[in-house]
Amino acid sequence: MTAVILRADARRLPLPDESVDLIVTSPPYWGLRSYTDGGRHYEGQIGAEPDPQDYITALLDCTAEWSRVLKPSGSIFVLLGDKYVNRTRGAWRGSSDGFTWRAASPRYVRPKDMPEKSLMLLPERYRIGAVDKLGLIARAVVIWDKPSAMPESVTDRVRRSHEDWVHLTKEPHYFSAVDEIRKPHAAPRRVAGRSAFNARNVNHVRTGTGHYDGQHPLGALPGSVWEVGTQPLRVPEHLDVEHFAAYPPALIRSIILGWSPSGVCTACGDGRRPVVDKPGLLGGDNNPASRDGSRTRSTMDGGTERWQRRIAKPDRIVGYACACSTPDAPTRPAVVLDPFGGTGTTALVADVHGRHGISVDMSADYCRLAQWRTADPGERARALGVPKPPPVPSGQDPLFEEIA
Fold this sequence. Notes:
The protein is an alpha/beta fold. Helices cover 18% and strands 24% of the residues.
């Protein structure tokens, strides 16, 4: 498809109302670093506010703008990190002068209502504000478990090795295609015998929860903890970008496949959802049996009898459908937006998986980096998880537009 790189402000997006199917982004964390153009700090960037409450207010202003461009059927996924209150340096991890990269900048201040060494709970404050002030629906919080997280020089608490995604929607009913991202079933962590695991495949009625049809043949839904290792990003020297913080493509892939359509119908406007073939169950009894589907069991009078279990045929995705009565209407690519595009990971992964990716950033340096990355054959192969493909022919670079 395409990857478009826009230089613009996340609070004023150059996009029409309700034009985006999915938003996936990671805003700059408060007081962590300066993002630059040509090595110089630029004004107006999120994360440079002197006070954490101002930071949350700015993030909510951004989110209100994202809600404007998001379709009613769309989702927003935001990755946000936290910070500790520091007595001697306010909340800034740098020198006591606050922003070290410009002398006239305001210094960070320690919030008076937060005790020293406390987490500021910035992700939680953002989520509460998104619900209370913007009326969004908080559908889930997903933990990104980083097995190779950076070490910390602390001795009185655990090392922090995770960050939080929040899944927000505008409406209770929205697009999802979770059948695309199911995981293989795993046996429970218990040693109560084989029957303890097999019992999960038995059809039975659960009191108060409806009918249970056993394990889904396509696999289990992903849990709320995703273990994904970080990956280094090697940027060519000629781009001359001093810092780059990129989350791994594997972290974004499940979100894009699970919550953006493979195609949007041009007739009805709905996203195409996967159609799962459910051939049903064969045979009679439901309980586990031998490989050929039959076994003997004892009867009430002490004899034996042979019975045939019901054998589940595996479900599979056989196509995609929308609200149209016929499945042959043309489609267009779904639009996936990252309003803090940075290195272009979201647009890259969306592009290689058949979506239209849009990466927005205020920094010309990062727009230049994202332009290179979304076109580079090696980066595109890594986003797909396949060996490096041949070089991209000239004339197929992504579009780079600068919006004032």
